[in-house]
From TrEMBL:
Gene3D superfamilies: 3.30.70.330
InterPro entries with a match to the protein in the record: Nucleotide-bd_a/b_plait_sf, RBD_domain_sf, RRM_dom
SUPFAM superfamilies, alphabetized: RNA-binding domain, RBD
Descriptive protein name: RRM domain-containing protein
Domain RRM: 17-86
Gene Ontology MF annotations: RNA binding
Domain of life: Eukaryota
Pfam families the UniProt entry points to: RRM_1
Length: 227
């Protein structure tokens, strides 16, 4: 993908990613199943984090993808999801990193663009598409923080949500990505990307007698209200 050369990822610079804090009950086959949509993977190395007992010891797996594009795909679509084929009562999040020893600054979200959701393409059509093909369409505009299907953002139905590392890339995505989506799904209607703030909620059907202080009183117990 030429886009990887034009707009390199700020973190993923090789085809190797690291799965950290993996309990001993998670086997390599679980990771292979989890990464299945991102192409074949191979195991490079395993390191063990010492604990007081085998029960709370964890491992770090170095996972090699077929190329850097598929490593980026995994980083954008799987980070924070659950490792597959584990008992429902014992879920385990996928703590995926670009380095065996990432720094705190690597995770900073201060400069990320607001997430955008796709309007005009049915979620079922997106879900049935090869995830790498879909990723490639969005990646043309720049590297992705995340790409998720079936996200509940409070609309009538779940949506596809994409987030870019750079606001410039998010702005540039609108014309090129929407045109590519229209072509890919042979659509004649309007296709667009709309930004939303995941820290903002919309409240409807409020009593006309409620004041701003009443709203603050209801919600400030859950955290700081900016405005």
């Amino acid at each position: 993908m030429a886009d990887l050369l034009c707009y390199p990822h700020p973190l993923v610079t090789s085809n190797v990613l690291y799965v950290r804090d993996v309990p001993f009950r998670v086997k390599w086959d679980n990771l292979v199943t989890t990464f299945k949509a991102c192409g074949p993977v191979s195991q490079l190395e395993v390191t063990t984090t010492k604990g007081t007992s085998k029960k709370n010891r964890c491992r770090t797996w170095a996972v090699c993808f077929q190329d850097i594009a598929h490593a980026e795909l995994a980083f954008a679509t799987l980070r924070g999801t659950s490792i597959k084929d584990l008992p429902l009562a014992l879920p385990c999040p996928l703590t995926l990193f670009h380095s065996a020893h990432p720094s705190e600054s690597d995770a900073s979200s201060a400069s990320w663009a607001l997430p955008q959701y796709v309007v005009g393409v049915k979620l079922q059509a997106l879900a049935e598409t090869n995830i790498f093909s879909l990723f490639s369409i969005f990646r043309r505009a720049g590297p992705l923080v995340s790409l998720r299907l079936d996200v509940d953002i409070g609309r009538d139905a779940p949506v596809c949500v994409v987030r870019y590392w750079s606001l410039d890339h998010a702005d540039a995505a609108a014309p090129g990505v929407t045109a590519a989506l229209r072509e890919r799904f042979q659509l004649s209607g309007i296709v667009s990307l709309k930004s939303y703030d995941p820290c903002t909620i919309l409240i409807t059907n409020l009593d006309s007698g409620l004041e701003a202080n009443d709203i603050h009183g209801l919600f400030n117990k859950f955290g700081t209200i900016i405005e």
